[in-house]
Write a structure and sequence with these properties.
Helix content is 62%, strand content 0%. The chain is mainly alpha-helical and 188 residues long.
Length: 188
């Protein structure tokens, strides 16, 4: 699954870079502050951690470097702290919570645009049914509390997205009016 996600990230990076030929290219590596005006890609070193452009780099290799660095640091910390019950429980909870929050970016995007255009309702219904069955399984099998709480959170986020789809379908946003050139109709 991680390999598939990296391949999708590579494809997205290539498409975005092709579409942003005149935009400043970002990388995981460092650069000077003067390249705001630069329209051609500038190569940076591995040390660029500009928070305004994090995860918006121009090169797929920068993403791979970041993932490897994160994995190495997280693995080392886990190796050092593996005997700590508090660390292991916290790490497990954060993993489950991260999965529970997967729908939040879609929820936020829908809210920001006041629209669910382009979103598949069938896909969200499948998310909701999968999350509901998973949460029911956790509750019936007496899984640790964090699994049930995060499962319920996932179902609530899914239901909120479905609520947005219903609300925005009932009250569609009016299309923005475009400025008409005064001579536009005469020129045709």
């Amino acid at each position: 699954m991680i390999l598939t996600m990296l391949l999708m990230l590579k494809l997205c990076t290539e498409v975005r870079v092709a579409n942003e030929l005149n935009a400043r290219r970002r990388s995981f590596a460092a650069a000077d502050s003067k390249d705001e005006e630069v329209k051609v890609a500038s190569r940076r070193s591995f040390l660029d951690f500009d928070p305004h452009h994090f995860w918006q780099w121009s090169s797929f290799s920068d993403y791979v470097q970041c993932v490897l660095a994160f994995t190495g640091v997280a693995g080392y910390i886990t190796y050092l702290s593996i005997d700590s019950t508090l660390f292991v429980e916290t790490l497990g909870f954060l993993a489950v919570l991260t999965e529970a929050m997967l729908g939040v970016p879609q929820l936020y995007r829908n809210h920001r645009h006041q629209s669910t255009e382009g979103m598949s309702i069938k896909m969200v219904l499948m998310w909701t049914s999968g999350d509901a069955f998973k949460t029911a399984y956790f509750l019936l099998k007496g899984a640790p509390l964090q699994f049930s709480v995060c499962g319920l959170l996932q179902v609530l986020v899914d239901l909120a997205i479905l609520g947005q789809a219903y609300a925005f379908a009932r009250h569609p946003q009016k299309p923005a009016l475009h400025a008409v050139h005064p001579a536009g109709t005469k020129a045709l």
